[in-house]
Every structure is written in C-alpha cells, then in structure tokens.
Prior knowledge:
With 155 residues, the chain is an all-alpha fold. The protein has helices spanning 2-21, 28-42, 48-79, 91-112, 122-149. It has one domain (2-149).
Amino acid sequence: MRPFIRYWLPVLMWMAIIFAMSTGVGAPQSTSRFIVPILTWLIPDISPESLHAIRFMIRKVMHVIEYAILAGLVWRALFQPTAKDNRKWSWPVAGKAFAITVVYAATDEWHQSFVPHRVGSIFDVGFDGFGAAIAVVALWCFRQTRNRSTPAADD
C-alpha cells in the first residue's frame, strides 16, 4: 500500500484536479474572471483583440504545463526512482508515461464535450501531448546529468 500512496496517489490526485478543471470551473468564461483583470492591470491600454489572444495563449500554455506535470508524475509512478537510484533511463517506461498521459488527455477532452460551456478539442490533446513530451525529454536530460555525476560502482 505504501508504494501506491507514494507513487500513484499523486497521479490520481493530479488527474482529479485536471478533471475538475474540465468542468465549468475551467471554462473560458470562468478563467476570464481573473485573467482579464490581471492583464488589464498589467497592460492598461491593451486592445480587446490582444486581450483575447493573450488569454488564449495563457490557456494553451496551461494545457502544456498541466500535462507535463501529469507525465512527470506518471513516469515517477512507473519508474519509482529512489534517492540513490542509478538505473539507466528506460524509454519503454517513458513511452508508457507519455501514452498514459495522452490517453488521459483524450478522455478529458471527450469529457469536456459533455460539459456546458466547454468543447472537446483534438487540438488541445495536441497541446497536452506536447506538454507530456516536454516532461519526458526534461526527465531524460535530468537523468542523464544525474547519472553522469554519480560515480559508477566498482565491479
């Protein structure tokens, strides 16, 4: 039970957060309530067109970030690294983490297609997959750097 709590519970909690944001809470009308005032405070002379474009970009960047976090958590749950872990990178594990993340992204977009004020979009799955890919590459870079700095055990 302890490995589940340590490795898989964070994955399930993050998936629940994503699911909650896929309801009306994360709808453009809802997020505009705080994004628009912040943007107009930061840039008082912003045009409505620029405001719309920046709000759109912020929402897409959030897709990338939330699914990068999910991919990192899924990789961690599958690989289950430890403090002094010097195992080699596993592309099959990374591929599974990426696939699980993209499948969840697709089901999340499907879920949104049933929510009022939300629309499921294959393009958003692309942004989500991009975030997952960034996470996998970042983890690979981190592991490469970490393994280079860890001295090899003597045979």
